[in-house]
Specification:
- The protein folds into 2 domains: 171 residues, 2-Layer Sandwich (VC0802-like), CATH 3.30.2130.30; 211 residues, HUPs (Rossmann fold, 3-Layer(aba) Sandwich).
- Helices cover 40% and strands 21% of the residues.
- Strands 1, 2, 3, 4, 5, 6, 7, 8 and 9 form a 9-stranded mixed beta sheet that branches.
Length: 398
């Protein structure tokens, strides 16, 4: 038997009143986006606080596990169920379907306890939930004698029966990622490097419903095409959750060389970071973003001490979201493993920041001193920034 329907559950928190429609529409859009990336033909519909995915193609056009995995990346979903949908019928018939469902879903090698939970949303249905519970329970006990027994308090297995316009039978609820559907909380620009941290930072903000675009700074010929490809790959991995990302690839070489030639070398990283913020903000404005996102965490490296962050922050006029600010490296690694970016992040390719790095960078930069140093750049840095912005390559990652 192939289940041709998925029931998707979402959290109800924060979606009361008129936000609800917006929340649901965004969720449906994200579900469609996720399904467009897997094999199969599907129809997505919403109905009374539920979202259903029906397979419209032949039985073998889709892989239920692949679909479930894709749906596990849709923020806003809290549960994904593979359900058997059958027409409304007498309770005996429903009970037989439930037996068939359990028989095909589980490999009952050792005895399990179960509980039936019926919901009768269709009040026209002439039999009460409790009566259906009892009947289905009885049939299951009969069909799987010695293998299944009832435990209403701590069952190993739940059997859900929902009587609506049709009858839905399911048992397992695969957890969704939670969060809010992307598109319900605006858009932000991620400063995406090839490291471990920034993809995780982007993922965390997208989880709150924020759509993403990204800026990557490279320094050819000091950094390679392969380093750039790694960032494209990371953007693609993040886009599995966030939906499409516009990735702006900025040639940062001339700006870096200019800073290198004119500014104290122990301030290089901070000054570079400040120009990164300014350029990313220019793209943020073009893309309709309201904030910047970085993968910084207090004290992780010299450029992320609290003094350094003050200097970096000053370069931006938009709010800078740093979701990893209080994370230890291991916490960040754990998330990157969970979301599948780790293996790509650890590929050893040079980063523009590591090439022009000083041996002993300042760890407690003072903003007034940094600004003073930047004055040495003033005659042509604006032109260089404009060149970098105009010359950027924009790749749409979907
Ligand atoms: P990550 O793992 O994200 O690269 P990191 O530990 O290497 O972080 P830094 O190199 O100090 O830390 O970078 C701090 C933040 O600055 C990054 O998380 C990222 O948001 C941004 N950033 C650094 N380098 C680049 C780059 N080449 N392009 C775009 N953003 C960058
Ligand atoms: Mg880095």
């Amino acid at each position: 038997m192939v289940f041709r329907t998925f029931l998707l559950k979402y959290g109800e928190i924060g979606i009361k009143g008129k936000n609800r429609g917006q929340f649901e529409d965004a969720l449906v859009a994200q579900v469609r986006h996720a399904l467009s990336r897997v094999d199969g033909e599907f129809e997505v519909s919403k109905e009374q606080g539920r979202i259903y995915v029906d397979v419209t193609g032949p039985d073998d056009c889709f892989d239920p596990d692949e679909v479930t995995q894709a749906l596990q990346r849709v923020f806003g979903l809290v549960g994904i169920c593979q359900v058997l949908k059958v027409p409304v019928a007498e309770p005996e018939v429903i009970a037989e379907e439930a037996v068939r469902y359990i028989d095909q879903t589980y490999d009952l090698t050792s005895p399990v306890t179960f509980k039936v939970h019926t919901r009768r949303a269709n009040k026209q249905y002439p039999v009460t939930s409790m009566e259906v519970d009892a009947l289905v329970g009885e049939k299951l006990l009969g069909a799987f004698e010695g293998k299944m027994s009832v435990d209403v308090h701590h069952p190993d297995m739940m059997v859900y029966i929902e009587i609506r316009e049709e009858v839905y039978i399911y048992s397992r609820i695969v957890p969704g990622p939670g969060g809010m559907p992307v598109g319900t909380n605006g858009r932000a620009q991620l400063l995406l490097s090839g490291g471990i941290d920034s993809p995780v930072a982007g993922w965390m903000i997208a989880k709150r419903g924020v759509a993403l675009d990204a800026t990557y700074f490279h320094a050819p010929p000091y950094t390679s095409e392969r380093a750039k490809q790694k960032v494209v790959d990371l953007a693609r991995l993040v886009a599995r959750y966030s939906g499409p990302i516009r990735l702006h690839v900025v040639n940062f070489t001339d700006i870096q060389l200019e800073i290198y030639d004119r500014c104290p070398h122990d301030e290089l990283t901070i000054i570079m970071r400040r120009y990164m913020m300014k350029i990313a903000e220019a793209f943020a404005k073009k893309d309709g973003s309201m904030g910047l996102i970085t993968g910084e965490s207090i004290g992780q490296v010299a450029s992320q001490t609290i003094q350094s962050l003050v200097c970096t922050d000053d370069a931006a006029t938009m709010p800078v979201f740093r979701p990893l600010i209080g994370f230890d490296k291991q916490d960040i690694i754990d998330v990157s493993l969970k979301i599948g970016t780790y293996d790509t992040s650890i590929q050893p390719f040079e980063d523009c920041c590591t090439i022009f790095v000083a041996k002993h960078p300042v760890t407690k930069p003072r903003l007034d001193i940094i600004k003073k140093s930047e004055e040495r750049l003033s005659d042509n840095i604006d032109a260089l920034m404009q060149q970098a912005i105009d010359g950027a390559e924009t790749i749409t990652i979907s």
